[in-house]
Give the backbone structure.
Amino acid sequence: CGRTRIALQPLVEAVEDEVRRLKASGHTIQLRKIALMGCVVNGPGEARDADLGIAGGDGKGVLFRHGEIVRTMPESELLPAFLAELHRHTSPAVEGTGERTYIASHSSNTK
């Protein structure tokens, strides 16, 4: 999709940093897969297998779960809304669970 109109890399880095911080502090993220998509048109459908995701472009974006749009918001609210939802799905670590969370990001604007 050539419709990527969002600074996706800073969002990816911020989410990866928060996931690392949470795990380092002994928390477990109760999401199998999260998605950060650069296209609000196709993103939710392409990432429908993600437990939680955001997709954005042209000054707005959506928060979605399993491909279903939960909320539309200004682009400036995407990261705070996503992180708040991530925290709602986080709990203290349970020894020996071995759970992993995968972060998928997609932007077809490759140079």
The chain has a mean pLDDT of 85.
